[in-house]
Write a structure and sequence with these properties.
The chain is mainly beta and 103 residues long. The protein has a single domain, classed as Jelly Rolls. Helices cover 8% and strands 38% of the residues. The protein contains one helix and eight strands. The strands form two sheets. Strands 1-2-8-3-6 form a five-stranded antiparallel β-sheet, with no helix packed on it. Strands 5-4-7 form a three-stranded antiparallel β-sheet, with no helix packed on it. A hairpin with a 4-residue loop joins strand 1 and strand 2. The longest helix is centred in the last third of the chain and has 8 residues. The termini are far apart. The mean pLDDT is 91.
């Protein structure tokens, strides 16, 4: 199955995800993420974000969304512009990074 977005990795914890305005809303499925995420809307109009058992909320540029890990959520498309998101995920330091700090 093809993903309905493209990703560009910025650094170890950050990526920019773009959803094309030509995709259909039924391509955007309910899902859960394995890690907590902070998602910032960079650009896009008339796109909605919905958590399980909540009504969809309009996504606004510059607004951060906290998505707890393993919570069902989805994006809903109602507009005709691309949606660009900045996604940040916390990372755990490797053992080497940890020990390098204390030496």
């Amino acid at each position: 199955m093809n993903k309905p977005y493209t990703d560009k990795r910025i650094d170890r914890t950050t990526r920019v995800r773009t959803f094309n305005h030509l995709l259909e809303s039924d391509e955007l499925v309910w899902h859960r993420d394995l890690k907590d995420r902070v998602v910032r809307v960079i650009e896009g109009s008339n796109w909605y974000f919905q958590m399980d058992n909540e009504i969809p909320k309009l996504m606004k540029e510059g607004v951060d969304l906290l998505i707890p890990k393993m919570e069902y959520h989805r994006i809903y498309k109602a507009g005709d512009t691309d949606l660009v998101l900045e996604i940040k995920e916390p990372t755990v330091k490797t053992f080497k990074e940890f020990t390098d700090e204390i030496i």
